[in-house]
Design goal:
Layout: H1 2-18, E1 23-37, E2 42-43, E3 46-51, E4 53-65, E5 70-87, E6 94-110, E7 115-129, E8 141-152, E9 157-166, E10 177-188
Antiparallel strand pairs: 1-4, 1-10, 2-3, 3-5, 4-5, 5-6, 6-7, 7-8, 8-9, 9-10
């Protein structure tokens, strides 16, 4: 059984390597500049204003070419986001630092061999939150829409900039949505 699994893995790797023009797998990591925005941010009867925080993301991605200028890029990322909440008129500040497993599905329009425009939906699943956070009932699922630009430095090395805006409120109590600016570096095998 183990031998068959090893043989299957080698065959799949050989197939993906031989069809590298159609399908590629890679890694990426970078920084997040995240915030949580809302019209009225009220938590436990206290009004807050938010400030962005800096965090990170890391994960796997694939690229599936569907033509000369178009490809799909599914990703699986661990992304830390949140915001710093400053109480208006009260000393009751806290940082909402949360971790998500995010699954973006980006459509890529290759402008030339160096630049591509990326856009598409993203689903994120809440995995962790800081213990001292006062936001109760934080939703476990967050949907967003992203757009950005990729710069292909070499055939395998790339840089990406992307902005993701939340489409749903992450907590009924706070009435806020996630937003995150991501800057990434990565490579395809």
């Amino acid at each position: 059984m183990k031998r068959n699994l090893l043989l299957l893995t080698i065959l799949l790797f050989a197939t993906f390597t031989s069809s590298a023009q159609i399908f590629r797998i890679g890694l990426k990591a970078g920084i997040n500049y995240a915030n949580q925005n809302g019209t009225t941010i009220t938590v436990n009867s206290t009004n807050y204003k938010t400030d962005a925080i800096t965090n990170f993301h890391i994960g796997l991605l694939a690229e599936v070419k569907l033509g000369e200028r178009f490809s799909i890029q599914p990703e699986l990322l661990y992304s830390t986001q949140g915001a710093k909440y400053d109480a208006v008129g009260v000393i009751n500040d806290f940082t909402n630092d949360v971790g998500y497993v995010s699954i973006p599905l980006m459509a890529k329009i290759n402008l030339n061999n160096t630049f591509s425009l990326d856009f598409g939906p993203q689903a994120s699943f809440l995995m962790s939150k800081k213990n001292d956070v006062s936001i109760n009932d934080q939703k476990n699922l967050d949907f967003g829409a992203g757009g950005g630009l990729s710069i292909h430095i070499t055939k395998g090395l790339f840089l990406q900039g992307r902005y993701i805006v939340g489409l749903n409120e992450i907590s009924p109590e706070a009435k806020v949505k996630n937003s995150v600016l991501q800057v990434s570096a990565g490579f395809f095998f």
